[in-house]
Amino acid sequence: MKKSILKVHPHDNVIVALRDLTRGEVVELDGKTYTIAEDIQAKHKFPETFLEAGDSIFMYGVLVGKAQTHIPAGARISTANVKHASTGFELGERRTGWNVPDVSKFEGRTFMGYHRSDGSVGTANHWLVIPLVFCENRNIDVLKESLLDELGFARPKKYNQFARQLKQLYSSGKSVQEILDVQFREDEQLAKIERLFSNIDGVKFITHEGGCGGTRQDAQALCGLLAGYATHSNVCGVTVLSLGCQNAQVAMLEEEIAKRMPDFDKPLYILEQQKVGSETELISQALKKTFAGLMIANQNERRAAPISKLCIGLECGGSDGFSGISANPAIGYTSDLLVACGGSVILSEFPELCGVEQEMSDRCVDETKANRFIDIMRRYGQRAKESGSGFDMNPSPGNIKDGLITDAIKSAGAAKKGGTSPVTDVLDYPEKVTKPGLNLLCTPGNDVESTTAEVAAGANIVLFTTGLGTPTGNPVAPVIKLSSNTKLYEKMKDIIDINTGTIIEGEETIEQAGERILDYVIKVASGEVVAKSVKNGQEDFIPWKRGVSL
Q: Distance between CA 415 and CA 137 in Å, rounded?
């Protein structure tokens, strides 16, 4: 029987509405009954007993807020009657025991990937074209226009056909209302463009607004980020355009590449416009070198690899009140499964670990890593306050509307993405994963900045949970979207891959969903299934400027 309400943790004093509840309604859970004091929308919470002003509010077993006024039992908690609160944290005891899952179903499982000389295995084979400075963005666009159609990597132009239809209707004298009434229909007959290089999954063109005009630290971090992409297992070669006079110098990029891959042996072509001279010479050289590099990279074919070679980024965006009880714990179980199989996972978005710092630091395998996590969290939090903000301002209007009314509530649910395994390493932006297991990576809570950083750290697949819907993707790594609720999945099937609303509806356990997700990940990693973000050409890339984004 489907439940109406849920108590997430035995120590909680608030209860989640799994459906819309009406004033005066009596609902039952585990033998106890609760009378609803006001209309409460699904995903929102109410206290199980009367709360006085100043009383603590617990959810997921941790402190997530303080009552600002008295709140009757069964009344909705909101930003009007609750404020953010979380506990302090310090170096504690190591608590590295975890709920090791049964992985017998996945023993011996492999995926078909692209093997690299450093031992990593890609889930895709992309050529990368990047600028060292924003001055080269226009030239990157010129290369993009020149190569994609000719090589067969351009996406079908379905909306161009629709625009052509509207043009024809206008020319035939149709009215404004008649134009507005036209329905867009996908043309199943769109010609599929044949790729020239069958073993290349795409040529990806990245642009950004950095490289000069900022601090030297920003330039170094940008080069580290770009080096993470150049050395990424999903990247087979790189074309770099540099102006020449910018802060982000070629030597800086080469230094960062060497840090991550000392024996870097992929085709790497660096062209500096102020040395080359004319734009015509720059573009023609870039085209020739990129084409030659693709000829070399096309010789690599997919071969079987153990799933221990997978590195999954764990991300959320457009979260809702169900994210922390369906999608996030589901990929948390997927995370535990992969770690138990010897793979790697990355949990980032440090502002969304506010309130669970003690748990995460205690899960670090040694005190050195625990101290590093504590230090990074404290420094980040202090910088946020100095800029006139704070972690308590992290929830977006959409988060709040759908039940995440304090950062601690949002964070406690977001942390579920990391499962229960020990933290094997703590990384600062833009460092790269070197150890299997659960890695904590310092990034902001901004979805795209965080996803960009997770891929630079080595994620060759990203699991991205959402309760409200988001079209985010990445240039080189498939981003698999998971909805926290079925209503969203049905509404946005064109951008969402997996529905975990089945957990809310009682049709599936968290563990069953977690196994289903890992099965899907293996298919995407093998190229058997194309993630919606890849199909839709969603290729977001935003470098993080430290101290600016939260």
A: 36
What are the angstrom distances between the C-alpha of 296 and each of 75, 195, 226, 246, 268?
65, 15, 22, 31, 12
| Consecutive H or E run containing 166 | helix 158-171
| Nearest partner of 476 among 295, 145, 225, 258, judged by Cα | 225
Using the predicted structure, report yes or no on whether residue 548 has a pLDDT greater than 60: no
Buried b (16+ CB within 10 A) or exposed e, 251-284: ebbbebbeebbeebebbbbebbbeebeeeeebbe
Instruction: Tokens for 250, please give them.
Output: 């070629």
Residue 496, Cβ density class (10 Å: 0-12 exposed, 13-18 middle, ≥19 buried): buried
On average, the pLDDT of the chain sits at 95
Q: What percent of the chain has pLDDT over 90?
A: 88
| Predicted model pTM | 0.94
Task: Kindly tell me the burial class for residue 483, based on how many C-beta atoms sit within 10 Å of its own C-beta (0-12, 13-18, 19 or more).
Answer: buried
Residue 64's nearest CA partner among 45, 86, 47, 79 is: 86
What CA–CA distance (Å, rounded) separates 451 from 294?
A: 26
Nearest-angstrom CA–CA distance, 144 and 128: 11
Is the backbone peptide bond immediately before 47 cis, with ω within 30 degrees of 0?
Answer: no
Q: Which residues contact 302 (CB under 8 A, 6 or more apart)?
A: 112, 113, 114, 199, 526, 527
Q: Of 162 and 291, which is predicted with more confidence?
A: 291
| Beta pairing partners, 462 | 313, 479
What's the pLDDT score for residue 191? 56
Alpha-carbon dihedral angle through residues 11, 14, 20, 24, given to the nearest 10 degrees: 120
> Residue holding tokens 């980024």?
313
CA distance 101 to 333: 8
Q: How far is CA 381 from the centre of its chain?
A: 21
Q: Residue 5: helix, strand or coil by DSSP?
A: strand
Instruction: Kindly report the number of other CB atoms within 10 A of residue 233's CB atom.
Output: 26
